[in-house]
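Weekly puzzle thread! Below is a chain. First person to post its structure in C-alpha cell form gets bragging rights.
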Amino acid sequence: PPLKHPRYPCLDRARGNRLVTIAAGFLYRGGALLCTDTELTGGTLKTQAAKIVSFGCKGGMLSFAYAGNYDYALCVIDKCRRKLASVTAAELLPELERIIDKEYRRLVLSNPNQTWDHTLPYSFLISFSAPPDGVKMFVARQTSLRQVLSYECIGVGSDLASYLIGDHSVVGMSERRILSLAAFMLANVKANVSGCGGMSHFLGIRDDGAMAEFYSAVVPGFVPATSTEWLEFRAKGFDSMARDLFFSMADQSISDDEFRSRLEVFNARVSELRTEWNKTARFTEPFVQFERATKV
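Winning reply:
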C-alpha cells in the first residue's frame, strides 16, 4: 500500500524551512534588552539574517525576537503589524494574544505533518514600549502568551543560555552590565551549540521609549572594534583561565605558595584585560549609540 508519509521526511524538511536558534530577552533597571544570533540553518545550508523586528502602532512600539521556523515567524509578525496598527494600548494585549493563538493553530497545529516535522514550530520574545508606562516583555510559545518578569530564552540554545545566565537578578542590573551578560551568554552558546552562530544582534529599549540597535561580530584575525565584540572575543579564554585557577585551589598536590603564585599570575592577567577593555570601551562602546538615541 502507498506510504502515508514520505519514506525519508528529513530530506523534504531540508529543502524548505529555515530554523532560527537562540534569542533572549532581559528586563533591567530602566528598560529591556533583546538579543539573538544571526545564523539560519536550512538543510545543509547556512545563511545570515536579522531576527529582531520592530514596528510602531497606535498603542506604542512592539519588538519581536523570534526562534524556530523563520518563514512562519515572519508571517505572524507581518500579521501583527497589520492587525495592531490601529489598536490602542488598552486593547493591544488581548488582540496580540488572539493573533498568536489563531496563527499558531493555522500554521502549525493544523499542518498534517506537525506530529513529526520539528521544523514547523516557532516562538517569540515580544517587548512592548508605551511611555511613560515603561517596557513590558512577553514570551509566546505555541498558543500561549506569558509576561516575562526577569529574563527568558528561546530556541535550541535556550537551555545552555539559561544555565549561563543562572540566578542573576537581572531586573536590578544596569544597561552596561546586562549587555555584558548577554554578550557572554551569546558567545558561549554560539561556540557550543550546533546551529547557533553568526553575529550577535542587540536591541535595547529604555522605559522612556529610546531605542538602540547594533550588531557584534567577532572575526578571527581582526581586533575587536567594540567593547561588546571584545567581551565575546575574550569570554571563552577567561572562562578557561578561571576554571584552571579553581581546580588549582582544590588540588592537594599544589602547595599554598604555588597556588599564591598562580593567583598572582591570574590577577595580573585580569588587570591587563581590564586595561585592554577600557581602551576599547572608551571609544567604541555600543551603548554610546543608546545615549545618542535618548537625545533624539
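Puzzle host: Confirmed. Bonus trivia for everyone else. The mean pLDDT is 86.
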